[in-house]
Amino acid sequence: MELLTYLHKLFAHDDWANREVVHALQAAAQAPPRSAKLMAHVLAAESLWRARMLQKPAQLAVWPTLTLDQMAELLGELGAHWKNFLGALDGESGLARVVQYTNSKGEHWSNSVQDILMHVVMHSAYHRGQIAADMRASGLEPIYTDFIHGVRQKLVTS
């Protein structure tokens, strides 16, 4: 499978899994504060990387305070963005394009689009794992967002 095609699948999973977590937090009688904080960070980080790749200023802090409704709204924006962004990439040359940016510490960096995209999905998965552990520690049943589960259940398609 071509890398760009596979990235579409990974971002479809990311979108589905993030939606599942936000819905689970919304359904909880009381969303664990740490879980909500981590989910807000996941979405803000995706928004930040979107801005960096478009060479635009960031719209959110890296660790913002967002309501669950604001998270749900941002999810819709991000899902559409990543689908459009990936659809507009010019194959391997688009993935190899280097993006120069300044991180939240004021350091200047440059990375390929391919590496940034992989970071986005891995970063989200990392924090969704933390959210699952926090939800369980708070007495809630965490939502099952594993990639293979989404694929098996045909919840993730590219």
- C-alpha-based Rg, rounded: 16 Å
Reading the helices and strands in chain order gives HHHHEEHH
Indicate the structural class: mainly alpha
Number of strands: 2
Low-confidence stretches: none
User: What is the CATH third-level topology name?
Assistant: Four Helix Bundle (Hemerythrin (Met), subunit A)
Q: What sort of overall outline do the alpha carbons produce when their principal axes are compared?
A: globular
Question: Given the structure, what is the number of helices?
Answer: 6
Tell me, what is the CATH class? Mainly Alpha
The CATH superfamily turns out to be: dinb family like domain
Largest sheet: 2 strands, antiparallel
CATH architecture, please?
Up-down Bundle
Assign a percent range to the helix content: 55-70%
Strand order of the largest sheet: 1-2
Total domain count = 1
Overall pLDDT score:
94
Strand fraction equals: 5-15%
Terminal CA distance reads: 12 Å
